[in-house]
Amino acid sequence: MNVKIDSRKIEKGDTFVALRGIDHDGHAYIRQAIENGAAKIICEEGSYEVETCIVEDTRAYLVNYLKDTYYDKISKLKLIGITGTNGKTTSAFLLHQMLNKLGRKCGYIGTIGFYVGEKIRSLANTTPDIYDLYAILLQCLSLGCEYVVMEVSSQGLANHRVETLQFDYAVFTNLTQDHLDFHKTMERYALAKQELFRMLKPSGKAIINYDDSYKHYFLLEENENVTFGFTGGDFNVALDAADKEHTEFSVQCPAFTQNFSTNLIGTYNIYNLMASVVILTLEQFDSATIAQAAAALTLPKGRTECIHTGNNLIMVDYAHTPDAMSKVLTAARALTSGSIYVVFGCTGERDRDKRAKMSAIACKHADYVIMTHDDPHYEDQAQIYHDMTSGLSYDNYEIVHDRKDAIRKGISLLDTDDILLILGKGHEEFIVCRDKRIPFNDMNVARQCLSERRTPTAARICQSA
Ligand SMILES: CC(=O)N[C@H]1[C@@H](OP(=O)(O)OP(=O)(O)OC[C@H]2O[C@@H](n3ccc(=O)[nH]c3=O)[C@H](O)[C@@H]2O)O[C@H](CO)[C@@H](O)[C@@H]1O[C@H](C)C(=O)N[C@@H](C)C(=O)N[C@H](CCC(=O)O)C(=O)O
Ligand SMILES: Nc1ncnc2c1ncn2[C@@H]1O[C@H](COP(=O)(O)OP(=O)(O)OP(=O)(O)O)[C@@H](O)[C@H]1O
After folding, report:
1. pTM
2. Which residues, in sequence order, are CB contacts of 454 under 8 Å at separation 6+?
3. Cα–Cα dist 299/443, whole Å
4. Where in the chain is the domain with CATH 3.40.1390.10?
């Protein structure tokens, strides 16, 4: 595309469209765009030495341009949008994986990046803005994709990032507290997500978690709705058996009754897998083929990612909402008769109201909790700890300010069969503190702390040899 919205990416002869964003205004970068070689500027005001076209609303101009120029092409893709508080990345990543396994080339767009089988690149947002989105969808087409599954965040919907797109499937995973700093109330949060269900193609289908108490926001009369759940729904699930390595469940629907055995653990991951089971069924795959594809799956990076060390398990997980914490702690409890330790912190400048809830859940379900920092952004860390601990009616916790020290402390507490959960940052590679991005990955740090712990022993063995 030689029409661009980022001055830093302008090459000689390009057209620059100056967009007014939330924090930045593209009009401030017109000079830079011209210096980089822009031959034409589309903006709302100003006069420049290159060809300039003044329009009333640059964003509306861009949206129409993308739609008129590329929509016919990208509408050939089967587009699946997944929304909900938790499980978007996992559900989308599993579906992308299963479609590719079954020989249907599929792209994935979401929190962990842009993938077509392999990772192609990281993304700044879970749901990229319309310009990036069109570019990615065009790339999916050129890579031969038939399907694209994307996470659609509530901020993405509220900020019109998926404008003009029409979906073949819209999936609702669940709704629990998060992002209330942005939406203010659960009602507005639900309504923001509901928008996805008004963006279906005429032949599109809505796939909805029947067990979620907010399902009514997503079961719109005008849509063809297909539900799944343990308590009912068109695809009714029953848990048959579960151990540390496998989960067995069965699904009953009008078309079939099928047993599944998967390497995924935690009931919440069965919910995540069910979105794929339903969509693959609607795409005419037979149930035995779907069950076969579900037998061995890889979870996205940072979701229940494990280090097995002696009799202990160290698990890094992206749980950063009260519901996710409760789900992952329940799953861990089922895996051991030993103690459970948790290291976690709360993000700064995000939903303050969930902090105390997360602490209460951690202290209730774990034996001992080490609170530390997450990404403070520009917020005072002392304020974050205050929000995490005020009114807390438990005393099985301590605060260890440095996240690496907290992880080291968690590891030092492990005794036979104990589990350490390091929560909140999952796949992330940085700690964001003020304007700094400090390299930090929970999994790498846990490995480093483990090897430090082993080194003295190894040294003793070497000395005595
Ligand atoms: C507060 C917020 O939502 N900000 C989003 C917003 O930024 P913005 O409006 O300030 O715009 P901008 O893109 O930085 O700048 C405006 C224009 O100036 C241009 N520009 C800018 C700089 C420059 O040097 N040259 C230049 O030309 C930009 O290319 C753009 O055209 O638009 C950008 C482009 O879409 C987003 O990347 C950015 O998301 C920020 C990074 C963010 O953190 N957003 C969070 C709240 C978010 O959206 N999160 C959800 C996930 C939630 C979840 O599920 O957990 C998400 O979907 O990612
Ligand atoms: N279906 C689910 N219900 C509740 N919790 C879940 C579910 N699936 C995953 N989780 C928990 O939530 C965490 C985040 O999962 P995932 O990344 O799939 O969700 P997400 O909706 O993409 O989150 P985000 O929007 O913040 O990126 C996981 O690490 C796990 O602890």
Report:
1. 0.91
2. none
3. 15
4. 3-56
